[in-house]
């Protein structure tokens, strides 16, 4: 799937970490929400409200999942899940183009 | 208008200048195309094919339009136009969140 069709896109970007992480919200007719975003190389900690599925379309990062003990390397074409109401850490090693799905 | 509705969004980002400028394409039912993008502070030169209307939603930059002699400051909430098949220079002073419309 190269594009999301019949969706709404929020014009204004979400800007985090001084712009090193930015995203835009995509809203689906069934109420589902995703964000399409870019992470520059750097270290970040994020908190979740919903369960999230992070699809890394390009780039490379290491992720420390909630309660995890080891860093996991994730490359373009791979995904990872994060539980709701938790925190996870990322070390982005190569500019990451991502799609995050929020699961209610 | 806070969102674009009933559109298609290309999943993969367009990445320029090592990721300091990124955008995503939004395609409208009538064939119109816009990109929503982020420019980190820095200096850039762009070339146009179509005429472009650049709406700066947030941030601040100086633009040197094709054939121009002076830098023009553009802030969030302001726009500028660039002729087709031309080049323009930008000095982004504050992270810019933009919407670019391509006019056939």
TrEMBL record, chains A, B:
Q: What does this protein do?
A: Catalyzes the phosphorolysis of diverse nucleosides, yielding D-ribose 1-phosphate and the respective free bases. Can use uridine, adenosine, guanosine, cytidine, thymidine, inosine and xanthosine as substrates. Also catalyzes the reverse reactions.
The family note in this entry says: Belongs to the nucleoside phosphorylase PpnP family.
* Catalytic reaction(s) noted: a purine D-ribonucleoside + phosphate = a purine nucleobase + alpha-D-ribose 1-phosphate; cytidine + phosphate = cytosine + alpha-D-ribose 1-phosphate; thymidine + phosphate = 2-deoxy-alpha-D-ribose 1-phosphate + thymine; xanthosine + phosphate = alpha-D-ribose 1-phosphate + xanthine
Q: Which organism is it from?
A: Anaerobacterium chartisolvens
Q: Is Transferase included in the keywords of this UniProt record? A: yes
Tell me the superkingdom of the source: Bacteria
Residue span of the signal peptide, if any?
none
Q: What does the entry list under GO cellular component?
A: cytosol
Assigned EC number: 2.4.2.1, 2.4.2.2
Keyword list (alphabetical) reads: Glycosyltransferase, Transferase
Please give the name of this protein.
Pyrimidine/purine nucleoside phosphorylase
Kind of enzyme, top EC level?
Answer: transferase
Keyword Transferase applies: yes
Pfam family, any one:
Ppnp
Q: Which GO terms describe its molecular function?
A: guanosine phosphorylase activity; purine-nucleoside phosphorylase activity; thymidine phosphorylase activity; uridine phosphorylase activity
